[in-house]
Amino acid sequence: MPAWRTYLLTALLRAFQIRMRRYSPTHITPPAAYTVRTDSYIVETAAGATPVHIYYPEAAEGQALPVFVNLHGGGFFMGSYADDEGWGRHVAELTPCVVVNIDYHLAPRSRFPFSIFEVRDVLMWLQAQEERLGLNMERFALGGHSAGGNIAASTLLLLRDTGAPMPAVQILDSPILDLATDPREKPSFPGAIPIFVADLFTASYLETSQNAAHPYISPLHAESLEGLPPTLVFTPEYDSLAREAFRYAERLKREGVPAEYQMFPKTIHAFTHVGRKSTAKKAWGLVVSTLQARLL
To answer: Under DSSP, is residue 166 helix (H, G, I), strand (E, B) or coil?
Structure first.
C-alpha cells in the first residue's frame, strides 16, 4: 500500500473512531471510581515524549501497591489512553492496585520497533522511580487490548530475551498475535474487523521491508514462549483474532507457562468497551480477580 494512502486512511479512520467513542449509543461508560486519584507524567522514551497516566486507589495512601501497566487498543493507529481511563480507575479501585495507562505513540508516525521500546522505557522509568511514585514494581502486571495486547506480548519477549525484570502476570484482551497471516485467511464473522481495516494494521505498523513473522511483531511465531509469566488471555466469540489468541494460550501451556484462556459467548471485538455493560463488567472482573490472585 502506498505510504500516502496509508496515512490518509489511518487519519480518516482515527477521526471516525474518535467520533464513535464520543457519540455511539453502544459505548459503555465504566462505573465511577470517585476515590481514585490520577497523576500524569511525560516520560522520555525511544518513541519521543510519552504521556503516562497513573491511577492511585485510596488504599495507596501511605503504602506502595502492586502495579498493572495497561496498553489501549486501536489497531496500532487508533485509540488513546482515554479509551481505558474509566476502566483503569475502576480496576485500581476494586483490586486495589496502582494502574498505569500508557498513551503510546500511534502508527504510522511511530512504527515497529519503536512501540515496544517505548513500553520498555516506560517500565524502566517506573522501576527507577518506584519509591518516589509509591509503586511496588517487584509485583507488576503488563497487559493490553487488541493491538495493545500485541505490544504487551511483544515487549514481554524483549524483556525475557534481554534479561530485564519480568511481570508477575500478563493479561491480553483480544490480542493481535499474528500479523504474518493474511487477514483473509483468518476466521470471518458478521461484525468482525473488516478486512481493509485489518490490512491497515500491518500497513501502518510495519515498514514494507520488515518481516511480519518476527516474534516481536507476531508473538505467536516466536520459536519459544518458555520463560514468560503466567498469562490470562480472553476474547469474544465472534472475533477474527480469537483463534490466534487461543493458539497462543495453548502454546504457553505446552511450553510450561501457566495460562488461562476464556471466551465470552455472543460477543464481538472490543466488547469490553462497546455493547452490553454486564458482559464487559464480567471481563473486567476477570482482570481484577487475576490481578488479585497474582499480585496481592
So the answer is: coil
Query: What are the distances in angstroms from CA 204 to CA 10, 81, 101, 112?
Result: 8, 19, 22, 9
Within 10 Å of residue 209's Cβ, how many Cβ atoms? Answer: 5
User: What would the grid cell of residue 19 be?
Assistant: 467520533
As a whole number of angstroms, the distance between CA 270 and CA 264 comes to 12
Residues 198-213: tens digit of each pLDDT: 999 999 999 999 999 9
Stretch (H or E) spanning 216: none
Say which DSSP state 25 is in: T
Across-strand partners of 142?
Answer: 69, 170
Extended strands (E) in the chain = 37-45, 48-56, 65-71, 98-102, 135-145, 169-173, 231-238, 259-268
pLDDT above 80: residue 20: no
Integer Cα distance of 188 and 183 in angstroms: 9
- What pLDDT score does 159 carry? 98
The radius of gyration of the chain from alpha carbons, rounded to an integer in Å, stands at 18
Per residue in 263-283, pLDDT tens? 999 999 999 999 999 999 999
Q: Distance between CA atoms of 109 and 117, rounded to whole angstroms?
A: 15
Q: For residue 240, give the DSSP letter.
A: T
Q: Which stretches does DSSP call E strand in 14-134?
A: 37-45, 48-56, 65-71, 98-102
Comparing 62 with 134, the larger pLDDT belongs to: 134
Question: Mean per-residue pLDDT for 215-231?
Answer: 98
What length is written for the chain? 296
